[in-house]
Amino acid sequence: MDCCGGTTEHDEDCGEVQVKDSIDAKTVDAAKALESENYSAGFSTTIETDFAPKGLSEETIRYISAAKNEPEWLLEWRLKAYERWLTMEEPTWAMVRYPKIDYQAYYYYAAPKAGAKYASIDDVPKEILETYEKLGIPLREAEVLLGVEGAVETAAEAREKPRVAVDAVFDSVSVATTFRAELKKAGVIFMSISEAVHEYPDLVKKYLGSVVPQSDNFFATLNSAVFSDGTFVYIPKGVRCPMELSTYFRMNAENTGQFERTLIIADEAAHVSYLEGCTAPVRDENQLHAAVVELVALDDAEIKYSTVQNWWPGDEDGNGGIFNFVTKRGDCRGDRSKISWTQVETGSAVTWKYPSCILRGDDSVGEFYSIAVTNGRQQADTGTKMIHLGKRTKSRIISKGISAGRSNNTYRGLVSVNRKADKARNFTQCDSLLIGQNCGAHTIPYVENRRADAQLEHEATTTKLSDDQLFYARQRGIPEEDAVALLVNGFVRDVLQHLPMEFAVEAQSLLKVSLEGSVG
Amino acid sequence: MLKITNLSATVGEAAEAKGILNGLTLDVPAGEVHAIMGPNGAGKSTLSYVLTGRNGYDVTGGSATLNGEDILAMDPETRAAKGMFLSFQYPVEIPGVPVMTFVRTAINAQRKARGEDEMSAPDFIKRSREVGKTLNLNAEMLKRPVNVGFSGGEKKRLEIYQMMMLEPKFLILDETDSGLDIDALKTVADGVNAMRDPSRGMLVITHYQRLLDYIKPDKVHVLAKGRIIKTGGPDLALRLEKEGYDGVLGEAA
């Protein structure tokens, strides 16, 4: 274990979302005009919204369930979770400090008034489409297909472009899912989980809560009681999903918690790559985000899950910002299955998140690649758990923590080798980079090993972005902000290369803006 | 070209600031190579940092201009774009950033600052290959992170590579000979000599006369206690080598 910290005279502001090139300058300016400081995703959308009664009670849960016209079994599942939650205590072991959350002060369900689901994308309220457009998330299939500037492109060129199918979640409900017809042809099910409950109840019933049980932890249990929407993906046997799947989460309404639930199942020998992006408007109040993501990989299946998280981090004094308490877990249920998590975490006031792998199948593989950036007063306690149960299971953890301003960044990870996990192997590398004198970086690796033949390697480094390096780059003519970005990109290079191409470019720009003003 | 007048500078926080340069005056015209020699602690490295704008050094008096422009008020990157280049005594490691990425970023940042077009990737690669060849730096080395795992000699050759790629107007070589064996010294000197040009000025800071056998200076200055106390031709360097600083300085004082 190594711990270190330090101190600078500076205390900086936090990031800005990179708006894609394809969005016209006017939209960007409009978004910028609404932003506080330089977080450009910080605008809110004015749209009539239906709320559940404020606060949390059995009544709230019944309201949510009724609003979604859910079957009885799901209501009961929720109520059971709620009962359990009432007996649980909020965890305090993470290295994060925040004011006590009043769970009765939130709305647990907010839906755009025009109706939860739209028959066609043309029925989605204009304001919502515009919101996504401002963020650079094209929802119209034609736009995706052609790339937004696409008018000049020929259809043939368009077909060769990598495409991404998007499910957009606005506050509590999914508002649009693109490319469904084409995915359906391949047998891929990609829809909001509320729809899946009706259309594929057996699959949902079979897998929901099978990776993250209802009683797993305080926040996961809360999610089980009140989850509003999220994405459901099923890739049938032997199918390689023909495009990247992606969900875009947007928290809009005030005093609202977002509790999405994502369930991805890759049947035997299926492959899927899934991307998740998040933003929220600037609010003085803290917003609560407690998501659950469950992945199931059967024999020879592979799931790659990438996240770029840029929730509003709060202002430079630590007011507002998202509390991000997320439970993400993948179950390598089948032999030779593989689950890979890649995350770029730049937002949120408080992050509490440990995407994990249960390596149940023999020869299964788990991977975790992470970049966590904290600036201003942000606090992140993030890492992974690799639970080796099957024979010859392998895991790999590469974590890069970057702390600037007055932030605190903790890597917390567990590598556990069960006594039946013959010849399990793990490689862990945790690197921390400190920018300035007032931030902290902490590395807390836990290892539980019951096998003499396990091979476990751990490497950890802590470095400071030095004045020497900055001056060297500037002497060569590279302006200070660009020099910081270049040095940071060098530091995270071996993680960035695991992100899908388009995401990697976006992540690089995001890193740059997140660290703007962190030196000087 | 570079004109330094009565320059004074301190290093460190105000309370415990130490005066390192005390009224230094020096004029290096375009096309000339001047050597600065001096004992340890004379202010040689301070001079190179003050001229390139490193944090922590405060100018307390005097001026420095490059082609008539006051450089002391500029950011380090602006000075670089104006053509100032420092070959570091201790080149810095930059993990994860390949040499070619670093240098190409630098070239294009300088060009942007000057309002010029970026250098295209093919042009860059072609030029990099040529320069690498003259310095015995193979393509593999130029793909490695800047200075990481490089030997002392390789680091110095990489400084010269950057210099040749950036084509600065004014070069400062800070103890470029330290840590070099004789073959590497020759390679480095060849690179520097290739940069000699009627439009370019150079300041070669060194402790020993040895480097000056390979890079022939037009003038040699002796720096002691923060100012130039003696100026002469190349023979002054030889005298210093023979008689030591004490001998020559004793005479000056």
UniProtKB/TrEMBL annotation, chain A:
Domain called SUF system FeS cluster assembly SufBD core: residue spans: 249-491
Membrane-traversing stretches: none
One Pfam family here: SUFBD_core
Domain spans labelled SUF system FeS cluster assembly SufBD N-terminal: 185-241
GO terms for biological process, alphabetical: iron-sulfur cluster assembly
Family, per entry: Belongs to the iron-sulfur cluster assembly SufBD family.
Protein name as it appears in the record: Cysteine desulfurase activator complex subunit SufB
The species this protein was found in: Hyphomonas johnsonii MHS-2
UniProtKB/TrEMBL annotation, chain B:
Pfam families documented for this protein: ABC_tran (PF00005)
Superkingdom in the source lineage: Bacteria
Keyword field contains ATP-binding: yes
Classification via InterPro entries: AAA+_ATPase (IPR003593), ABC_transporter-like_ATP-bd (IPR003439), FeS-cluster_ATPase_SufC (IPR010230), P-loop_NTPase (IPR027417)
Protein keywords: ATP-binding, Nucleotide-binding
UniProt xrefs under PROSITE patterns: ABC_TRANSPORTER_2 (PS50893)
Domain called ABC transporter: residue spans: 2-250
One Gene Ontology term of the molecular function aspect: ATP hydrolysis activity
Gene3D superfamilies: P-loop containing nucleotide triphosphate hydrolases
NCBIfam families: sufC
Family: Belongs to the ABC transporter superfamily. Ycf16 family.
Family matches, as PANTHER family: ABC TRANSPORTER I FAMILY MEMBER 6, CHLOROPLASTIC (PTHR43204)
Protein name: FeS assembly ATPase SufC
Organism expressing this protein natively: Hyphomonas johnsonii MHS-2
Taxonomy of the source species: Bacteria, Pseudomonadati, Pseudomonadota, Alphaproteobacteria, Hyphomonadales
